[in-house]
Write a structure and sequence with these properties.
heterodimer, A: about 400 residues, 10-stranded parallel β-sheet, 22 strands, B: alpha+beta, 5-stranded antiparallel β-sheet, 3-stranded antiparallel β-sheet
């Protein structure tokens, strides 16, 4: 009888030991697995946040910043929280279920055609989400932008997959990135034809060509130093040809202004040789040969096909009869721009001739030949569409942590 | 009967002695086998532990370095400094991460805004601002930095074990190459500070 009791006790102790040992092994393995999974999900949340920044980069050229800051309802409502620039606070992000979370208001949330673009964040592969929020740069008031600079914060959240009785403390993996972007609006031309040079050689063929400014002047001459551009231009036009340059109720519709008088503050960049030098060096990386895009012709030549976008050319450029450009034409440096009979530019043309090295602007002569029946028509919408092809300039990129975020 | 009892007792004693000797021999053999097995196991465990420590240090490097390297050059448009300066075995990183208001303040005064990384005495060492070099990750004997193309930083790390492994007589170095895409050095079509 005693032997039986001893065996039972021994068996129970053995079973208890085995259970305890199994439980210990299970917890140990689970902890190690969880640590490895945490590293992976933290990296994934960083990747998701990075995706959000890239998404914002593609959206930004299409957004009107002051509308974006106010959100869909058109009213700017909050700067109360210290983390108001974040899609949500860090503390909330660590606990929230990202699949059901909705933003409390629409300030700084992108929308299009009356609909929010990311109403509940964007779900990536797996269980992760990223959330975006735009806010004005701290140098300006939160609700109104003038310098075209904006901050975007992207929060990547990967929900924990093992939160249970044994791991009640587990939190979501969260990464928060901030990028500082500047929308590029320097090419918001004031006229269908905008010229910068110290003199000009103009050839007008016939009187059926058209430079149409509608509400604005047809030709704007930027004046920054003693220049004969205005007299050269007016002197080259016959009486009937002057009637072909229309806009703002004037014939010929020509104005000479200083750059400071232009409405767009970023237009001042166009007078900086360093701006053009950087632009021309980087431009080949951003161009393509599609009917819709940015085309760069550093050696000029004949362009004879439709294009919706931006054409940048140097040296002698001829727009053939098949050239139908909707957007912007930038003709830079020495060389002549020739518009053949059936060529048409809907949007605007910028012509300038100055060196792109050194700090001081040294103007040179420009040369333009316009054939009979060629047309240049001002269209702000076409210029606006072309400007959406210009990637925003990234001024900063940083990772934010709970201890530094504000 | 007496004689029989004496014979039986003598036989028992001899039997017990033989048994004890056999048991002792077996015990010695078993114990020797046990301890030699334990010894081999312990040697292997020690080797594995050294290798694990070496690899753990090597794997820790990307996690720590990425936090500092990726934002390098932040806010450089507002200051005249280079965010990344490369010497073959030394890397200097500058990044205006934040200031008193939580935003970049155009000063490189906060912690980790100006860093120097280098390897010496089998340690990867880091210097923050004007502080002294502090050990960051041990067992790192080689630290080579290169920039293969603009915006891409290549770092080659070699780690060794704390001491030569038993039966190997070598440190068994392990190397890895990390590529960091510097987010603040991606090409912009327009100048950052026109």
């Amino acid at each position: 009888m005693r032997a039986r009791g001893f065996s039972l006790l021994t068996s129970m102790m053995l079973i208890l030991f085995m259970i305890s040992f199994s439980l210990f092994l299970h917890l140990r393995i689970r902890t190690q697995w969880q640590m490895a999974a945490d590293v992976e999900s933290q990296l994934y949340s960083l990747v998701l946040a990075e995706n959000g920044i890239e998404y914002a980069r593609t959206l930004l050229p299409h957004m009107e910043l002051n509308l974006l800051l106010a959100g869909l309802d058109g009213t700017f409502s909050e700067t109360h929280s210290s983390e108001w620039r974040n899609p949500m606070s860090f503390a909330e992000a660590l606990r929230v279920d990202p699949s059901t979370w909705k933003p409390p208001h629409d300030d700084g949330l992108p929308f299009y055609d009356g609909q929010p673009l990311l109403p509940g964040g964007h779900r990536g592969a797996g269980e992760g989400y990223f959330f975006l929020k735009f806010s004005n740069n701290p140098e300006e008031s939160p609700e109104h932008d003038e310098d075209h600079i904006i901050l975007v914060r992207s929060m990547g959240i990967v929900p924990t997959s093992a939160q249970n009785f044994f791991f009640p403390h587990l939190k979501n993996s969260v990464a928060l990135l901030e990028a500082r972007f500047r929308q590029e609006r320097a090419f918001s031309l004031p006229s269908p034809l905008t010229l910068l040079g110290h003199s000009g050689s103009f050839q007008w063929e016939g009187a059926h060509f058209s430079i149409e400014g509608k509400e604005t002047f047809a030709i704007t001459l930027l004046s920054i130093s003693p220049s004969t551009l205005y007299t050269d231009l007016v002197g080259s036009l016959s009486g009937s040809q002057q009637q072909s340059i229309r806009g703002h109720g004037a014939h010929p519709s020509i104005r000479e202004v200083s750059p400071q008088d232009l409405n767009e503050p970023m237009a001042q960049h166009l007078l900086n040789p360093g701006f053009w030098h950087h632009f021309l060096v980087q431009l080949p990386k951003f161009t393509d040969n599609l009917p819709h895009g940015i085309v760069f012709l550093p050696e000029g030549g004949v362009f004879d096909k439709p294009l919706s976008g931006i054409l940048v050319a140097q040296r002698d450029l001829i727009l053939g009869n098949g050239a139908q450009i909707r957007g912007l034409l930038l003709h830079l440096g020495q060389g002549k721009l020739t518009l053949r009979e059936q060529s048409q530019v809907i949007g605007g043309i910028w012509m300038s001739n100055f060196g792109t090295t050194g700090e001081k602007l040294k103007l040179g002569p420009i040369a333009l030949q316009v054939s009979d029946y060629a047309a240049i028509r001002y269209d702000q919408a076409a210029i606006g569409e072309a400007l959406t092809l210009l990637p925003p300039t990234q001024l900063g990129w940083r990772i934010l942590f709970p201890e530094t975020v504000e | 009967m007496k004689n029989k009892g004496a014979r039986t007792a003598g036989y028992s004693k001899g039997h017990t002695l033989v048994e004890t000797m056999i048991a002792s021999s077996i015990s010695i053999i078993v114990l020797a086998g046990f301890f030699s097995t334990i010894g081999v196991f312990q040697t292997e465990s020690s080797n594995l532990s050294l290798l694990l420590e070496r690899d753990a240090n090597l794997w820790l490097a990307p996690l720590l370095l990425s936090r500092w390297i990726i934002p390098a050059g932040n806010n450089r448009w507002d200051q005249a400094w280079s965010g990344v300066t490369i010497d073959t075995d030394r890397l200097e990183l500058k990044s205006d991460i934040d200031g008193p208001g939580g935003f970049p303040d155009s000063k490189l005064s906060s912690s980790f805004e100006a860093l120097v990384l280098r390897s010496s005495n089998s340690n990867l060492r880091v210097q923050s601002n004007r502080g002294s070099f502090q050990p960051l990750i041990k067992n790192i004997v080689d630290f080579k930095v290169d920039s293969k193309e603009s915006g891409l930083l290549s770092i080659r790390l070699s780690a060794v074990t704390d001491r030569p492994l038993s039966m190997f007589e070598k440190d068994l170095p392990e190397s890895t190459e990390l590529l960091f895409f510097l987010r603040n050095y991606r090409s912009n079509l327009f100048p950052e500070n026109p």
